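Late entry, evening session. Most of the bench is empty. Finally got around to the prediction I had been postponing all week. Sequence below, unchanged from the version circulated by S.P.
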Amino acid sequence: MARVKRVLFLIAFFLAASLTSSDDPAKESDAEAGKEDGRVEQGATTWPPSDVTLEDDPSLWPGHLKPLGANVPNKEVTILQGFPPPEVFLRDYAIPSVPVLFKAAVTDSTAFKTWNSDEYFRQFSEAGTLTHTIETRKKEIRTQPPTDMTLRQFLDRYSQEDIYMVEGVPKFLRKDVPMPKALLCEPLTKMLVDTVMWFSSGGTKSVLHNDDVDNINCLYDGKKELVFISFQRYRDKVTLDHPEGSYSSIDVDAVDFTKFPGMREVEYHRVNMTAGDCLYIPYRWFHQVNSYGRNIAVNVWWEHNLRKYVEALSQDCGDLSEDLTLNDFQIEVPPEHNEPLMGLNELLDGGKDEVVTYEVFEAKVKEDKLLSELIIWTPECTQLVEEMFEEIDRNKDSVFTPQELEGLTKELQEELDEVLMDKLEGIRGIIIEQVAQLRESVAAEVAEGRAESYVELVKKMLEEQRTTIGDTEEVAGEHGHQEL
């Protein structure tokens, strides 16, 4: 029973949750790379190309077997000097899900001023005692096992070997890293989930992937290039054929349109970062990252929740100092993420005589915090929860008692794990699609001039439990709106 509960909790966690400006210092060095990979700058050609159609052999399309984003126009990303206030960041970027580059946003930080030297890291006693996760291939292959090293061991080897470090920011370095000023608002700091430090000698290439969190990446040494694809617009074109890790097996150096034909149709945003820059990577946007030169970056991840973002705009941010660092915050995976669906945990841990009906079971699922971004409780949600209940109701008497999960064989435990995973992934997919539909609908209304305020329309649709414009009758149907 304990194993089934752990898997249920673990799976439920997932329910939660180009820069082309002429003043960019990285542009000159990237111009030659653009010539080599066939990149087409913004405005250089029309897209899609007029000389091929979707009925043609995919291999005839520009970009076939070329690096990701090559031979196609690359759209610009908004550039700001430094961070905007949190309310502006929420209103203009986080709520509408728009990437933005913050130039020279952390150049006054200790990390920017000191992390350009390996000797700085060597001085800490923890650099010789604490071990860190080290990836053993710079061109990312997520099935390749990592190894462990102390920071000093890594520093001795990283410039000569095909390795890089990826780890939560070590506690002894957190005081060096500023909390991005765009996040210095108490409702947002309560949503912080994790931080990650990336350290290499350059030459790393990530897979094409997306994340279930929002993310600000700050670069403290070196240069980075990121290629973005909008999730809202192209979620049905980009294939993440490894859903367990939210990544694609696409070879980012030679994209095969015959294997991944949807990639012919997508638009790309390309961003070049230099040391001191920070970049907002929106929730679930597809992205691929390349690094150049000695390279150190830190990601700050926080929970994505559209409803909480809208509420935060009307809340007091508090009196947070702009000098706060990561060390000033308790950035840990929240308890509900370690044991999500905590209401169900109480049911599964209940006394042997406790009897749980389906109605109680469904109510516990609806109350869970990690389902708070679900906009509409649909008949599909009800069906999935019913199927979950049927699986734990082993004796089929329409009620559940904890005794029913006792004594399961290993084979039956694995079978139950797989079925529960499938149902929970179904609810996760509904949440993701509803949020994407809402954003897509609101963006269209604003673009066509039928709505002046993106945020106000989002707020209205959340209150009315709608994901598309004019869908009130369709959403309600014979079932009506079901309250969460």
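Two things to note before I forget:
DSSP finds 16 helices and 13 strands in the chain.
The two ends are 28 Å apart (CA to CA).
Will write this up properly tomorrow.
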